Amino acid sequence: MKHIRWLLLITGVLLALSARAEPPLATVPEPFSGFDPASIYTIKYDDVDAFLRAAVIDTGRSNREKAEPDQAKTGTRMKVKVKRSTINEGNRFVYEAFEGDDNAPNREMLKAMRQSLEQIPTAAPLKLFSRDEQLAYWLNLYNITLLDEIVAIYPKRNLKKVVTGKNSILAQKVLNVAGVPLSLDDIQHTILRQNYDNNRLVLYGLYQGHIGSPNIRKQAYTGQRVWYQLEDNAKDFVNSNRGTEGYEGDKAFKVSTFYERSAAYFPDFQQDLRAHLFVFLEGPELQALKAASELDPDIDDWTVTDLYGSYDSIGGSFADNNAALVDSIQNISRGANGLYSSNFSAAYSQAVTRAPDLSRFSPQLAELLKEIQVREERANEQKQGIVTVEEMGQAAEPEEPKEEP
Fold it and tell me: pLDDT tens-digit profile of 53-62?
């Protein structure tokens, strides 16, 4: 009997260890290491763009005001505890429109979009694109995948255990890109950090589903605008209560725990993060940062960024207190089937018809890929081997990443 107990205990430990997520990759896999700085090729994200415009509510920049205390609603004594300093901040994603059997088509749309993005490097190797074009790709893939993962577990109000710890969805190998199993942590901590030389701006493109993370934008990232979009997200996050908080005279200046979880981007955490914040911080908090002797990563809000705060039946501070939200959701309707947007049908039609084919790419690249396909078919017929991308020109040496503004 004692032997059986020990066997069960050992088995349990082994299962627990096997369930733990793997650490991020040490080096960038070969399919994602090359690029062409002179490339004119682009990737199209019209489906992602239509989807985000329909499903994301832009609440505007933070004014650093705290929400009013929540009051129990008529007919119930229930109150939901919220962080008044942050509950009204951050863009919202209409997770409610993906909940239940009636909204299964919306979930299928999101899944199809994720799979299409995942297969892009199979259709066109990333080394054909510039670094900026690749950066937009990784950010779009990261965010759409993250949305798809959270939709699968919604409604779940607190995401702390979802995005941190040994079972974090960020650390699971949920993607397979060009034959390489990848986690979202692999994208953040290996591919983006190494390919862009620790450029901290890339962090602000990594939405993580909760209020305490950088914003989900209403537009897809594009190679042409990606650095502007990241700078805009940086200004928003740094100048919000969910990013920083400080008062003149305080020794410690509070910052988001998101920076602590991204400490690899700040090797000398105190000095590097302080210098980074000085670039974007505005208002009284700037003087508070100058006077503070240390940074304290103490700010977090793990509340999912849904529309009604995951407690629609009893109300919530966000729905009650943010007048800007009420104005911005006039085309979001509440019906028998829950929340939906009239724009979803357009986004859905674009997503389901989007295959990992040539329609994803600019005309010049589509023509090149057609030529390669024809040559491969001829080579196979003549049994002379396969034409590779390298035959079209060697991958360029890595270029210097853009500096923070």
Answer: 989 999 999 9
